[in-house]
Specification:
Layout (H helix, E strand, L loop, with lengths): L1 H10 L19 H5 L7 E2 L13 E3 L6 E6 L2 E7 L13 H5 L9 E3 H6 L12 E4 L2 H18 L5 E3 L13 H12 L4 E3 L5 H10 L12 H7 L2 E5 L3 H4 L11 H13 L4 E5 L5 H6 L2 E3 L6 H14 L5 H7 E2 L1 H8 L11 H8 L3 H13 L2 E5 L10 H14 L8 E3 L43 E3 L5 H4 L4 E4 L2 E4 L5 E5 L3 H4 L3 H8 L4 E6 L4 H4 L3 E4 L8 E5 L6 E5 L12 H10 L4 H5 L4 H18 L7 H7 L1 E3 L10 H5 L13 E2 L3 H6 L28 E4 L15 H4 L9 E4 L1 H6 L7 E6 L2 E9 L7 E3 L44 E6 L14 E2 L11
Parallel strand pairs: 6-31, 7-18, 8-15, 9-10, 9-13, 10-11, 12-24, 13-14, 18-19, 19-20, 25-29, 26-28
Antiparallel strand pairs: 1-23, 2-3, 3-4, 5-6, 5-20, 16-17, 21-22, 22-23, 25-30, 27-28, 27-30
Helix pairs in contact: 6-22, 7-17, 12-15, 12-16, 12-17, 15-16
C-alpha cells in the first residue's frame, strides 16, 4: 500500500489543471514565509522563529504534525507544536507518553514454546504472552535461519511479507522499505495488493472516473469556499480526520474550515453532514445534519437520482457529452428491469430512513445550487462498498457539475490536507524499496506452485483458513497461498484486520511469525520472534512537510538515543543482511546521516531545476526546515470538462462510465454493470439479523489516536478511557433500555466475539447506532478462541468478508452487536505493558 500511495503522491508533481485565480489568500505560515509566497523561492526559517524561550529545542515530524521538543538529560520533557502549525492537534500531547510507555519492547524476545521447539511449536499457545529474552545476535540468527528454512523447504509461496501500514514518518527510516528491500535480497515472498483505507474505492473508481480518486489532489478549498453554494460531507468527518497526515501534517486545511464555519453562520454556504452520527465536523461547523440509516446510502442516492429524473432536473447535456451508459442505468432506476422496483424517494425512504420529502428537497437543492459532494471513506469499508462510490459519481454526473470550481465530487478532502494547493516543489525520496538494478535475490526461485504471488490485503486470513482457495478479484482469479511464515513491520495486524477469533484460529496454521515494532502490540504477542525497533523520535531523518501541499522539507532531529535495546529498522535489517553477505549492497555503504543528506541533496538538485532553491544540507539541518509558497488553486477534472477528447479519463471509453461493460463482463452477482442497491448480510434498523443484534457498530477512526498508535500513551488514554476501557458511544435511549448509565462497564458481543468497554452515553448518537473507535488495543483474557477482550478492540466483533468479488476489501463497518451492563468482577485489562518474561523452563523472571 505504501508504495502505491507514495506513487500517487509523486504523480502529483506533474498535475495538470486550470488555474483560475491567484495564490491562496489564507496563510498558515508566519511572516517570514508569507514574504515569499508570491515568488517561487523557498524560505529557510530562522531558528529564532521558534521564539526566544525555545532556543535549543529540537525539531522533528510526525503524522500528527511537526513538533519542537525540549530535551533535558537525554529525556523529552516537553513537546510543543512547530511554530508554523496554526492548528495543532491535541494528539501531540501524547508523544512523551508514547516514548516512555510501559508497552515499549525492551529487547528481542522469542515466544516460549517456539524458543523450545522452533517451527514445531504448539501454535495454540500463541497469545499466552510468555516470552524468553534473547540477544540481538541470537534473534537475528533465528530470523535468518527461518528465512533459509522456508525458502529451501517450501519456496517463495510460503513466506508472507505483510503490507506495511501507518509506519511512522521519515523518508530514510520508512520501515516498510527496509523490510521489503532486505527480505527481497534474500528471496521472494507473497505480498498484498490494495489497502484497508480505500480498498473498494481505489478498485471501482478507475472503471468509473479513470483514476483511483481517493489519493488524488482535489479542488482547492479556496475555490470551494468561493464558488460552492452547497457542500455535502457525505459519511465524512474531516475535522476529526485531518488531525493526521501520511507525511508530517501541516494542518492548513483547518484554516479553510474556519472560513467555512463563518460562511455557514452567515448562511453563504449551505453545509450538510449526511451521517448516522452528529460528527465532530457537524458540531464544529454548526451546520445541518441529516440522519441516515447505516449502510443505506446507495438507496438514498437512487432516491435523489429518481427525483432528478422525474422532475427533469438532471443535466442532460453533461450526461450526453461526458458520460457513457446512462441509458443502461435509467431502466433500473425507473423499475423497468427484472426487479421491477421503481427507485422512488418513497422506496428510498423506507430503506434509508430519510423522509421522502427531504430526499426530494435535497435533490432540488443540489440541482439548483453549485454543489460539492465530499465523500469520506468509511462507507466503502462495508459490504458492497464499491456501490456508494460508483453511485456517488453517477449522482454527480447527473448534477452536471464535475470539473466546475466548487462543484462535482471529491473522495479525499478529509485526508492529509487534500485541497490545499500543492507548491509544486519536489519532496525528498525514500530509502530504496527494491533491489538495485541488475541484482537478484539469494534465492531467485519464482516457483509459486500455482499460488498467486499477491493477495488482496484484507483476504490474508482466508489464505490460512482456506488454503489454495481460488477467489475472484477485480476481473481475475487469485489462488490464495497457504503461507507458513509471516513478517510484520510498520503495521499492527491484530488491530487492522477484522474478526479476532477467526484470526486466532487461522494463526495456528503458521509455523513462524516475526514482528518488528517498538510496542508490545497484540501483533507482537501473537508472534514468535519479536524485534524492538526504536521510535522515530530516536533517529535522524527527513520528511516532506505536507503530503499533498508539498509545503516544505523537514529535518527530523533525533530527540533521544534509542531506548532500552531497541534499534532503527535500518540497523535491524543491516544485521539480517550481514548474515547472507549482502550488508554492503543493502546500505550502499552509507550510514544514517549519509542517507539523510543524500535524500536532501537529491531533492535540492531537483528543486534547483524547478526554481525552488534550497540551502545546502548543513544549513538546512541546523535550521530544521525549508518552506515553499503555497501553490496555485486548482479544480479537479477541469481539464476533462474543458476538452473530454484531449483530456480523456483513464476509463476504457475515456468518459465517466455510469455503466461499465468491463465490470458487467466479469459476471459478478455482487458488483453488476452499474451501481445498484443490495441488502447486506447484517444490517440494523430492520435489516437482516437485527432482531438478535439490534445495534450497528461503527468502528470509525479515533479522535485522539492514529489507529492503534498513541493508545499506549497513558496520559492521553486517560482523557477518554472509561473505567480503564475503551469507550463505546451509544444513544441515551439505547442506554436507558438496557439499564446502562454513562460510565458503566458494559459487555459488547455478537456471535463472533465479546469485549468489555466503558459506556459513553452521548446525544450525538441515534438509537441503533454505537461506536467503538478502531485501534483500541486487543487484550484477551487468554489465547483461546472466544476469550473476552478486556480493553475493547472493535475488531473482536467485526466481520471478515470481502466487500465484493471486485475489490475483496475490508467490510469492517458491516457489523451488528448487542450490549449489556457488565455485572460481577471485571477482569483486569491485559492489553498493555508487555509480556510475561520467562526463562527457557517457563519460570517467570523479573525483568531488568
Ligand atoms: N474495524 C476497523 N478496522 C480498521 C479500520 C476501520 O475503520 N475499522 N480502518 C482500517 C484502516 S483505514 C487502516 S489504514 C488500518 C491501519 O492499520 P495499521 O497501519 O496497521 O495501524 P497502526 O496502528 O498505525 O499500526 C502501525 C504499527 O507500526 C508500528 N510502527 C510505527 N513506526 C514504526 C517503525 O518505524 N518501525 C517499526 N518496526 N514499526 C513501527 C506502530 O507501533 C504500530 O504498531 O486499520 C484498518 N482497520
Ligand atoms: N484522528 C485520526 N484521523 C485519521 C486517522 C486516525 O486514525 N485518526 N486515520 C486516517 C486514515 S488511515 C484513514 S483511512 C482516514 C479514514 O477516513 P474515513 O474512513 O472517512 O473516516 P471514519 O472516521 O472511519 O468515518 C467517517 C464518517 O463516516 C460515517 N459513516 C460510517 N458509516 C456510514 C454509513 O454507512 N453512511 C454514512 N452516511 N456515514 C457513515 C461515520 O459516522 C463517520 O462520521 O482517516 C485518516 N485520519
Ligand atoms: Mo486508512
Amino acid at each position: 500500500m505504501t508504495y502505491s500511495r507514495r506513487n500517487f503522491l509523486k504523480g502529483l508533481a506533474a498535475f495538470s489543471g486550470t488555474t483560475l485565480v491567484g495564490p491562496a489568500l489564507l496563510s498558515a505560515a508566519p511572516a517570514q514565509a508569507a514574504t515569499a509566497r508570491d515568488g517561487a523561492s523557498a524560505v529557510a526559517g530562522a531558528a529564532s522563529a521558534a521564539g526566544k524561550d525555545m532556543a535549543g529545542w529540537k525539531i522533528t515530524g510526525s503524522h500528527f504534525g511537526a513538533i519542537r521538543a525540549k530535551v533535558v538529560n537525554d529525556r523529552v520533557v516537553e513537546v510543543r507544536p512547530f511554530e508554523y502549525d496554526k492548528h495543532p492537534t491535541e494528539m501531540i500531547k501524547g508523544i512523551p507518553g508514547l516514548i516512555y510507555s510501559s508497552s515499549r519492547i525492551r529487547y528481542p524476545m522469542v515466544r516460549l514454546d517456539w524458543y523450545k521447539k522452533r517451527h514445531h511449536s504448539d501454535t495454540a499457545q500463541r497469545g499466552d504472552n510468555r516470552f524468553v529474552r534473547v540477544s540481538w545476535d541470537d534473534a537475528l540468527d533465528l530470523f535468518y535461519e527461518e528465512l533459509e528454512r522456508v525458502q529451501k523447504s517450501y519456496g517463495p509461496w510460503a513466506l508472507h511479507t505483510a503490507g506495511v501500514g501507518w509506519r511512522t514518518v521519515g523518508q530514510m527510516h520508512s520501515c516498510g522499505n527496509h523490510m521489503i528491500r532486505a527480505i527481497g535480497m534474500h528471496g521472494r515472498s507473497v505480498g498484498t495488493v490494495g489497502d484497508y483505507s480505500t480498498g473498494a474505492g481505489q478498485t471501482i473508481l478507475p472503471y468509473v472516473l479513470g483514476s483511483t480518486e481517493v489519493y488524488s489532489q482535489g479542488t482547492s478549498w479556496e475555490l470551494i469556499l468561493k464558488e460552492s453554494k452547497m457542500i455535502v460531507f457525505w459519511a465524512n468527518d474531516p475535522i476529526k480526520n485531518l488531525q493526521v497526515g501520511w507525511n508530517t501534517e501541516t494542518h492548513e486545511s483547518y484554516a479553510y474550515f474556519e472560513q467555512l464555519k463563518k460562511k455557514v453562520a452567515a448562511k453563504e454556504i449551505q453545509v450538510l453532514c449526511l451521517d448516522p452520527v452528529k460528527s465532530k465536523t457537524q458540531n464544529y461547523l454548526g451546520c445541518e445534519h441529516q440522519y441516515i440509516n447505516p449502510m443505506t446510502d446507495v438507496a438514498m442516492m437512487l432516491g435523489i437520482a429518481h427525483t432528478l429524473v422525474k422532475e427533469d432536473l438532471y443535466d442532460k447535456s453533461f450526461i450526453k457529452t461526458y458520460t457513457l451508459g446512462f441509458d443502461r442505468f435509467l431502466p433500473y432506476l425507473l423499475g423497468q428491469t427484472e426487479d421491477k422496483v421503481e427507485k422512488t424517494a418513497e422506496w428510498a425512504a423506507a430503506i434509508c430512513g430519510v423522509p421522502a420529502q427531504r430526499i426530494r428537497q435535497l435533490a432540488r437543492q443540489m440541482a439548483k445550487n453549485r454543489t460539492q459532494l465530499i465523500f469520506g471513506w468509511a462507507i466503502q469499508r462495508q459490504q458492497h462498498g464499491e456501490q456508494p462510490y460508483w453511485m456517488g459519481a453517477v449522482l454527480a454526473a447527473m448534477l452536471g457539475q464535475i470539473g466546475l470550481p466548487g462543484g462535482g465530487i471529491s473522495y479525499a478532502h478529509h485526508y492529509s490536507s487534500v485541497g490545499v494547493s500543492s507548491s509544486g516543489a519536489a519532496m525528498p525520496g525514500a530509502f530504496p524499496l527494491n533491489l538495485d538494478p541488475g541484482r537478484k535475490p539469494k534465492y531467485d526461485n519464482t516457483d509459486y506452485k500455482g499460488y498467486s504471488p499477491t493477495m488482496p490485503i484484507a483476504r490474508v486470513i482466508d489464505a490460512l483458513l482456506e488454503p489454495g482457495k481460488e477467489i475472484d478479484f477485480n476481473g481475475g482469479k487469485v489462488k490464495l497461498a497457504p503461507y507458513k511464515m509471516a513478517i510484520f513491520t510498520g503495521c499492527n495486524q491484530w488491530h487492522r484486520q477484522s474478526q479476532r477469533n477467526r484470526m486466532k484460529q487461522a494463526y495456528r496454521q503458521l509455523e513462524t511469525v516475526v514482528a518488528i515494532d517498538y510496542n508490545w502490540t497484540a501483533t507482537c504477542r501473537f508472534a514468535d520472534i519479536v524485534l524492538p525497533a526504536c521510535t522515530h523520535f530516536e533517529r535522524n531523518d527527513i520528511d516532506a512537510y505536507g503530503s499533498y501541499s508539498n509545503r516544505g522539507v523537514l529535518a527530523m532531529h533525533k530527540l533521544v538515543d534509542p531506548l532500552f535495546h531497541s534499534r532503527p529498522d535500518f540497523e535491524i535489517f543491516k544485521g539480517l543482511c550481514r548474515r547472507f553477505n549482502r550488508e554492503e549492497e543493502y546500505t550502499r555503504g552509507m550510514n544514517e546521516m549519509q542517507w539523510v543528506e543524500k535524500l536532501y541533496e537529491d531533492c535540492r538538485k531537483e528543486n534547483g531545476l524547478k526554481e525552488f532553491p534550497m540551502p545546502p544540507f548543513a544549513e538546512f539541518w541546523k535550521t530544521g526546515y525549508v518552506l515553499f509558497p503555497e501553490g496555485k488553486p486548482w479544480v479537479r477534472h477541469a481539464d476533462f470538462r474543458d476538452d473530454a477528447e484531449v483530456n480523456a479519463l483513464g476509463t476504457p471509453s475515456g468518459f465517466i462510465e455510469i455503466f461499465s461493460r468491463k465490470i458487467e463482463r466479469f459476471g459478478y452477482a455482487d458488483c453488476k454493470g452499474h451501481p445498484i442497491w443490495m441488502e447486506k448480510t447484517e444490517r440494523s434498523h430492520g435489516g437482516p439479523n437485527s432482531k438478535r443484534f439490534p445495534l450497528w457498530l461503527q468502528s470509525v477512526h479515533p479522535d485522539k489516536r492514529l489507529h492503534s498508535q498513541l493508545c499506549e500513551s497513558e496520559p492521553l488514554r486517560s482523557t477518554y478511557a472509561i473505567k480503564g476501557r475503551e469507550p463505546v458511544f451509544l444513544s441515551p435511549a439505547d442506554a436507558k433500555a438496557r439499564g446502562i448509565a454513562h460510565g458503566d462497564l458494559v459487555r459488547v458481543f455478537n456471535d463472533r466475539g465479546q469485549l468489555l468497554a466503558g459506556a459513553h452515553v452521548s446525544d450525538n448518537f441515534p438509537s441503533g447506532v454505537v461506536r467503538i473507535q478502531e485501534g483500541a488495543w486487543y487484550g484477551p483474557t487468554g489465547p483461546e478462541v472466544g476469550a473476552l477482550d478486556t480493553y475493547g478492540d472493535p475488531n473482536t466483533l467485526t466481520l471478515d468478508i470481502g466487500t465484493s468479488s471486485l475489490a475483496q476489501a475490508t467490510s469492517a463497518n458491516t457489523c451488528l452487536v448487542q450490549i449489556e451492563k457488565f455485572i460481577g468482577a471485571a477482569p483486569a485489562v491485559t492489553a498493555f505493558g508487555g509480556p510475561t518474561e520467562v526463562d527457557a523452563s517457563g519460570t517467570p523472571v523479573r525483568s531488568a
